[in-house]
Structure formats: structure tokens, C-alpha cells
Amino acid sequence: MAGEEPSLTGGERDGSEPWEVRESYAYLGAVTERPTAQLWDLVDSVGPVAARRLIRTGRAGEELTAQTQARRDLVDGAALLDAAARVGARLIVPGDPEWPAHALQPLDRPRGRRRNGAGGVPTALRPLGLWWRGPADPASSLGRSVAVVGTRAPTPYGRTVAADLGAGASAEGFTVISGGAFGIDAAAHRAVLGVRGTTVAVLAGGVDRLYPRGNDGLLREIAETGAVISAQPPGTGVTRYRFLDRNRIIAALSSATVVVEAAARSGALSTAAWAAALDRPVGAVPGPVTSVASVGCHLLLRDRGAVLVGRTADLVELAGRMGETAPPPTGEATPWDGLDDVTRRVLEALPTAGGAAPAEVAASAGIAPATVRAVLGRLSSTGAVVRGPEGWRRSGGGGMQLSLPVS
Amino acid sequence: MAGEEPSLTGGERDGSEPWEVRESYAYLGAVTERPTAQLWDLVDSVGPVAARRLIRTGRAGEELTAQTQARRDLVDGAALLDAAARVGARLIVPGDPEWPAHALQPLDRPRGRRRNGAGGVPTALRPLGLWWRGPADPASSLGRSVAVVGTRAPTPYGRTVAADLGAGASAEGFTVISGGAFGIDAAAHRAVLGVRGTTVAVLAGGVDRLYPRGNDGLLREIAETGAVISAQPPGTGVTRYRFLDRNRIIAALSSATVVVEAAARSGALSTAAWAAALDRPVGAVPGPVTSVASVGCHLLLRDRGAVLVGRTADLVELAGRMGETAPPPTGEATPWDGLDDVTRRVLEALPTAGGAAPAEVAASAGIAPATVRAVLGRLSSTGAVVRGPEGWRRSGGGGMQLSLPVS
């Protein structure tokens, strides 16, 4: 049957798949609601052009024929490509050099390690093409990417953190992927646009139907600088399950996914669940436990193994950039750092004015007088203590400042 | 040498240790700044009365003699007991029926499982007695206890959560232990007093020196209803290292420790570190990542294995009450819950007004017409869909409400 498919062995000058192949994928991606295992099996075995022919003529096997029965005579691949072209979009397909194969490799290939975010994608979830509207290069923009997602109804805090993480990840060279929705998604996208970074919005419907309408301006700007993409063909409207499928695409295309704010049943949790299922690292931003907008994030952190993300550095580490780990946050250094216990006790037992005899210090600190004298000798050589007419005291000069610890 | 120690084999009528033993422990607990391994070894081998005599007369071995040299002639056990009695306090000692042996068992005893919070305590950290000022019964009040600790400089959010957790844990029958400090500690203590529960404040200095002075009223109220306790003898002032030692006692006495708010270098982190080292479960309350008061908590959650605590139920689960686990927080149930994917897709493809033919629904949902017809038949029997003059539609009546998912 490979002989029937000369177009597959040919190819355009730039290495991308020829028009007939593209038209066939356009058809195949639309003839079922989402790719089925049977559909991918057929494409894998006979190629997209023959697969389309077999489906159209009802010779694709009983199961696949039933799956495609409803749409097989309605879908027109060429018309879909034309519709895409009218909004400046194209279809990238498996086999194209720009196809994000690293993110959408089949599950049966060797799985990457968890923190590399290279787990395979189950056949039925691998899109048969990505509709791509925007100047961003698919391979390079998706090669180093993080998803920043969350609720459509965030708090001002959530918006701020989403913007900070979006802009921060962008400054670190990451493409920021999100769902183009109101709330957290929009805040992340906008922040990236603000720093002239690359952001990609994955839509639940067609790339010619910018949804939600209220984000029309934002999505147009993304389409002009980054990309608005979809696994669904042009003309497709949004439905509940298409949002869930869209979340899978986001999870698959991103090296790591961070949820900024999410209520207990937020769709962002499904993105996180898919990311985890695909072996992509999942992060979550904590918030006040009194905030319903953080309940989902706390669920991820408490019960689902998500990593706490508080700063861009955490997100960068999560995405697994080689050799980079976020340093732990530290407070200001104090002069007490690095002192051994006995020295600390001697220092604290010393007055800051007047003076004390070594025996007094010894009794107060509960340390043998000989030890106290040795410590005092050592400390006086560093200037930390001085011996005055009334005895030993801490030197007032600058360095050694005492305050009670927070507790 | 046991023959020299008749008082140890005797005992008061209530099973508590006789006065000479108590006086000896008062001396032994004060003669060094904190218990040393040599001191405990001696007490374990000859008993407290003989141990005191050997130390006083400089016959306790070279090392211990050096350790006790500074204070051995200054400490007066009877005077300490008198000083305690003047503020209504007493010394409870190992061997007393009320001694919290479960919490302060030596490390070489079999260790409990982590979530039981029964890890042993290193010899050098086991206090040689607890000064106890208040009506709470030591054994029962410490048997079921949680520590609620945190920064002295909390946000209003932190105070609120500390109060909620303190009152909540108290309502669940737990004693709430904290350090009596400003901020989180005080908020937790106060909330427990507010619900007439039992709270215990562990002080860094003597129980006759209520510290900080600004919490004098609070600490007095705790001493009147619960207990203000210390491992340090009456008259002892506070020092930096005594706060750290106090934190160890809190960690050891509590079944679980939760940090509510803590800056990056907060002393509360030392309490958490000690709790973890002693195999007690550690929880941390998340907060806004923009809040410096939550940095320490996020550090615990991100890097140190602390469990996220957002509600009393989380804290109760952390403390390991048998058979109790916190149910995951859930959002409101929707009519879509439990529907299979095909059914959802059919439902979404149906109009809510007018009607559609099964073939239209099939094309829209990408599902074979035969399947669509079967699903419609099933749904019509539940009343979720109706067949009108124009075709099938979703029933308007109540139950089935559609909204786009958050994403």
C-alpha cells in the first residue's frame, strides 16, 4: 500500500510535508472529535493520504468506519486549510520539521525522566496536526516552554503572581503557554506581551474563532507576536469537553505546568493532572488558606505531589533547565551565624556595659570557668569582647548586635 | 550504690517521687545549662540523689565535674522548689506518674512510626524535670497535643489562621502548645482560651518570670487554666540559646507541629527542624508568595517535607488520630459529574431550544449516529433530554444546567 502513496516519499523543498499530506491531515484531524487509537493506527500503517481515502470510502474497518460515520462526508480538508489561510493560519503536521515531536512523541517511545518532562503521549491524545496562527516558530518556541494556568476568576494576588511568573519565565527565555482564558491565563499572556516575550495561547475551538470574545484584542496580539494554536480545525466552536482536550494539549506541549490559582474543581486541575500523567513536572502557587481561589493549588501541593512555586527561579528549576536549581531563600545574616554554642552562651552572658568576671559569666552560662576564659581570650582577639576596669563586656562597636530571636 | 538511695525505692502515697528526689532533680536540672550526656548517664546509673551528692563533692568524673564546676556550689534545689511554690508551680520529674514519658522517652527505646509522633529524644535534650505552673494535668494534656508556632511579627492573615487552628484543634480535644511569644504564639494561645480549651506555654526562662512582659496577662491566664512550663529553673532569664532549647521542648512534647507564618530565619523553623528530627510530623500553613511572613513556611513545604495545613482537619490528620483523615476539599457537584465522555458530548451538542436531528448531533459531536440515538434514548428516560416537534433538545427543567468550565 506504500506504493499508493508517492506523496509521502516526495516532499517540499524546505523538508515540510506536501500539500496533499497536509490536506489529508486536515481531514483526519476533523473527521473524529479527537484522535482515536484506530485512526492513529491507520495513519501509522498506510500514511495520511491513504488513510483519508479509506475512511472516505468506508473501507477503514468496522470500528473506525463507525467512529467517522457522522462526519466523513462533511469534512473538507482543503476548505479547512483555506479557512485557516484567511486568518493567516496554517496546519503543521507530523513529519514537518517544525512539528513539536519532542512534546508529542507516542507513549511507546522511551520515556524521559520525570523532571525532563519528556514522557510520551498516549496515541489517542496526540493531535493529528496543530493549527498555528502566528509568527512564532513551533519547534523552538515549544522546545523551552512553561504553562502558566489557573482560574478564570482570580484574586488580585493571583493576577499579580501570574504576571510575575509569566514575565519572569519569559525573561529566562521560556515560551509561556496558556489557554487564552479570562483571569490567570490572560494575566500570564499579557505580562509576556509586556516584556516582548513569546507566548502561545492554546484554544479549545478553531484559531479563526478567537474565544472568549472578551479576550479578542489580547488573542489578536498573541497571534501577531507569538501564536494562537488549536488541535481543532477552523470553524470549531467551544464545548466543555473541548476545553478539557485543550488542557491536555497545554500539558503535553509544556516542559512544566504551574497552576497559579484554582478553585477545588477548576479546569486548571485537569491540566495539572494531565501534565502529571504525561510525566511533566507540576507546580502550584500557594496562597492564603482562607482564599477559595487557592484551594485547588493547596490540593495539588498537599495530596498530588505538586512542587511549591513561589518565584520564577522555582519555575525555572521545575522546568528542569540543566544545572539550575533555585537557591533557598535566606534572611539577613547575623553576627551570630557560625558561632558555636559555647561561644554564643559566653557572649550572651556578658554585659554590654560595665563588666563581669569570668566566674560570673561561667555561672550564668553554665560553662566551666576555664572554658569561659579561653573563649574570652579568643573573642578579645577578634574585638568582639573587651576587658574594662569592671571586667569583661561585649564590645559596643558595630558588629556584634544582640536581639532576641523571633520564635 | 543503690543501697545509698532508699528514697528511690520508697515513694509518696500517690506514686510520685519523694521530696529528696525532687530536690535532687531541681539541682541537677540547674547545675548545667542543659542536660549533658554525662549527667544523664550518671543519673541513670546511680539515681538523682546520689548523682547530686557526687557532683556537689566533685566526685562525678572529670568531664562532668568540669561541666558542673561553674554552678555546682551555687545551685540550691530546695530554694528552687520554694521559688516555684511561691508562684504556685511545682517540678515534675522522671518517675512521676504524670511525667510525659511518651514524649520524652530516650532515643534508644524503640522508635515509633513517624505519624505517631513517638520518636525518641536524644539524651542530651531530655529535660531533667519540667517546671509546671498551672492546673492542667501533665500526662493527659500532653498526651494529645499539637504545637502551633510562628513568627513574632505576623500578618493579620497569620493571626487569623493561628487562631482558627488553635481553636479548631482545641475543639477536637487537643492541647495547644506554643511558646507564649508575641504574634502567632499569642494568637494561638488566646484562641484556645477563648474556647475554654487547654493551652500550654513553654517558656525559655523560669516559670516565675513571665516573658515577654507584654504577654504577662495572657501568660497569667494560661497559668490559671492550662499551664506555663519550662525546663529552666525559676529565676532563669531568657537568652537566645534558651529560646532554641525551648523550641526543642515544644517539638518534643507535641504530637505534631504546625508553623503558621515564619520568615526565612524564624525561630519557628528551628522548632519544625527539631520536630522533624524527633520524628514528629511537621505541618506548614501556606500564604501569599508575596508575603515575607510566609517565606519560611514555603521553604518547609517546598524543600523540607512539611505537610500543607490549611484547616483544622489537616492538623488533626497530621497529629495522627487513628482512622481520621481529612477529606479532600471539593467544589459543588454539577449535573455533569459521573457522565461518560460520549454522553457529555451528546448533551453539549444538543440545543436547549428548538431541536436537532440525531444526524446533526452526531456530526457536531463527532459520534456515530447509532451511538447518538442510543444515548438520546437513555437520556430521555431520565428526563435530561426531550424530543419536540423540531427534534431533540436538552430539557429546560432544573437539573441539567450548562456552563463553560473554568479553565
Percentage of residues assigned to helices of chain A = 40-55%
Count of beta strands of chain A = 11
**Shape field of chain A:** elongated
- Distance N to C terminus of chain A: 76 Å
What's the average pLDDT of chain A? Answer: 86
Radius of gyration of chain A: 30 Å
Unreliable residue runs of chain A: 1-11, 109-118, 397-407
Biggest β-sheet: strands ordered side by side in the sheet of chain A: 1-2-6-5-4-3-7-8-9
Assembly level: homodimer
Q: Describe the main β-sheet of chain A briefly.
A: 9 strands, mixed
| Number of contiguous helices of chain A | 18
Strand fraction of chain A: 5-15%
Q: Largest interface, by Cβ-Cβ below 8 angstroms: which chains and how many residues each?
A: A-B, 84 and 84 residues
Question: Class by helix and strand content of chain A?
Answer: alpha/beta
What is the chain-wise order of helices and strands of chain A? HHHHHHEHEHEHEHEHEHEHEHEHHHHEE
Can you put this structure into words, describing what you see?
The structure is a homodimer. The first copy, chain A, has about 400 residues and is an alpha/beta fold. Chain A is about 40% helix and about 10% strand. The first copy, chain A, has 18 helices and eleven strands. In chain A, the strands form two sheets. Chain A has a nine-stranded mixed β-sheet with strand order 1-2-6-5-4-3-7-8-9, sandwiched between helices. A two-stranded antiparallel ribbon of chain A has the order 10-11. In chain A, β3 (about 145-150), α9 and β4 (about 175-180) form a beta-alpha-beta unit. The radius of gyration of chain A is 30 Å and the shape is elongated. In chain A, about 55% of the residues are buried. At the A-B interface, α9, α12, α13, α14 and β9 of A face α9, α12, α13, α14 and β9 of B.
